[in-house]
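Internal ticket #5521
Category: modeling
Description: The requester needs a full-assembly model to guide mutagenesis choices. All entity lines are attached below as received. Residue total reported by intake: 764.
Assigned to: D.W.
Attached entities:
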Amino acid sequence: MSESDPMVAIRGLRKRFGRVHALKAVDLDIGRGRIVGLLGANGAGKSTLLRHIIGLYLPDVGTCTTLGCEAGKLSPAELARIGYVHQEGELIDWMTARQLIRYVSVYYPSWSRELEERLVDEYDISLKARVGSLSPGQRQRLAILIAICFEPELLILDEPAAALDPLARAQFLDLLLQLIQDQNRTIVISSHILSDVEKVIDHAVIMKAGRIAADASFDALREKYCRVRLTALSGALPEELGFGNVLECRRNESEATLTVADLSAEEIEAAATRINCQAEIQPLPLEDIYRVIVA
Amino acid sequence: MGIVWTHWKVAMARERSEGSSVVFTVVVVVLLVIVTSGLPDGEMDWRNLIDVARHPVILSLPFILLGFLPLGCHFQVHALTEKTFSFCLPGHRESLRRLYFSCAALGGLVFCLWWMVVGFGLGQSQEAAVSVWPHGVLSALGSFLGGMAILLAISASRLVLHPLVWGVLAFVAIPFGFICFFGLFVVCQYPLVPIPIGSVVLIFFWVRLGKMRYVRRSHRAILNEAMDPRFQLGFARPAPTWVDNLFLGRAEQCRPLGLGRYIWASFYRTFGSVLSYWKWVLSGAILASVGLGLMGRSFAEMMFVSLGLVAATAHLPAASSLLLPGGSREQFWGSVAAGVAMSVLLVALAVVIGGVSEIVALRSGAGAGDVGLRIASAWLACVLVPWMCAQRVGGAGVLRIVNGAGATVVFFLALLLCGQALDFSAWPTPRRYLVLASILLCGWVLFLVALRQVCRRGCLIGQTVYDED
């Protein structure tokens, strides 16, 4: 992803924890007004990368620039433009939800009471309940609320929906879409629930073992990878199907399903015609694209 | 025995991973002991190295150091046996007794060695020391059995006693435990006392830990605790409205995104929950004052040490992983402000308790011989606060010094040992104030250095070793 004035610019970032290389020479730009999905297996380095973006971790080598500043030296003015929800979701257990909201709101001059009231209502947050007594789902909703109500320009979401039920997840995704449509904010979301992520992202960054394996717009990925279902028009399929860039192939006598890369619809049609087959082209869901890239 | 050995290996590995914590604790204890051991009344000539080496406190150092390993591992093994899943592990139920007894035996051995050296070295029982048999052997046996019994009582009594009985005994055992722990003179002079008591306790635990009924019940209790929100929430409770308004209201009056606003808001997080217990704090202070007035100075020292240790549990802005608009500068000054405020509050509380206890002592006539010494012990709280803050910050940051619960307990015990071994009131006044001021200054310097490392150079979120995405 390249842009003249990115929200986040990472160059040659390396990070080690003891003997473990968490990040290995990562280069990444995150443009304004994007919803970026950060995908990867456990231990791929997603959380570490996100924490570098907001200056919670300092790079061993390389640079990370956020909102035009070195991430490790972000001032309160810049930090007040960044929202962060993380998977551990540290909240303050002894406070009530109302107290926590007030406590956090004190720090932010741009806190929106209107949005706060709306989210409290929509998320059904009990303001009198102690934070420590909330269920994991309620805690996560509260964490999302306090990360969003000051209307951050850059929203970092690290596994934000892991503890939410399906309805709450859908609500949350709608909220993200609203944020991006109404206010043109930048959102980076890391999640293992790819079926949810693909509904909202317009850009995907896939990480593997501390490196970036793919960094492209979601549309480009969907154009690049597709699934082709071939049905023989007469008799059996030939031994050789004659398709290039085949990543996966499952077949029987008369039908075959191929996962292919970098083939246009015309090329697929032409190849199918040559072997007297009917071709049905289907876009790959994000989960399959991810699997293909990571594998 | 295979399972017992496996648990020990895991515990040793965990203890090694907290090695920096242990090193920090040991260094602090050694410094404290060395700095203070030769000061009273010029008993010892520091220029004479042989004299120094033969000093009982110096002699006890290797055993204090030796004690860290079994004690640390003991806590780790204890933590392992308390895992909710451990009941299901093959052979685990049957190994519980051997595991606890192996821990206790190692601890008892250290107690035995330490008591022997320090007890005899202090010259409390010189005539007994000369006659090694039977007095010396009985003392060794007594301290060994006594040490084992104390360790088992600390770690395993919860498993084998009814919760109510355990709660009552735990309450009673705190002062009793201190007496036992520091009763080295009793062990040396009256070895026949701990031998039968220790034997009875050991037999009791051996029988009980072998019964599946108690093992099952203890695991059930652990599961219930894990699921019960009351246990998860702890004792903290929401701050009352006046506390909200005191701190947050004040913060709202400060400049947006300014340092003042950050500091006042972080005060709310640090002190909010504690202030919700102000009635309890007040009642406790009154009770403590009356109690101290009726008791001796040594209890005052114990109390003020405990008061100083409160700082180790307080929240500091630099040790937070909740992202708020505070950069390294805000976190640094916020933590310094919290440390100073905590210091002022705790010292004020200590002075008030000490002062009131002096009045009670004068009025009642009880403990009147110690007049003036109780309030004079309030310095302990003052000296300890920066050290505890340094421990708190360092544990969360790049220094990664004392952070583990086991190391904190060891640190606490070590401080108590030092306090017991040293008689501060007997020091010549100018030298005493000089040393105390130095310890205080060192504490603040260490706190500021640790804070600077964490805020300026370290990652703002302190992770243990590795992030799991």
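Resolution: model delivered.
Comment from assignee: The first strand of chain A starts at residue 8 and ends at 17.
Ticket closed.
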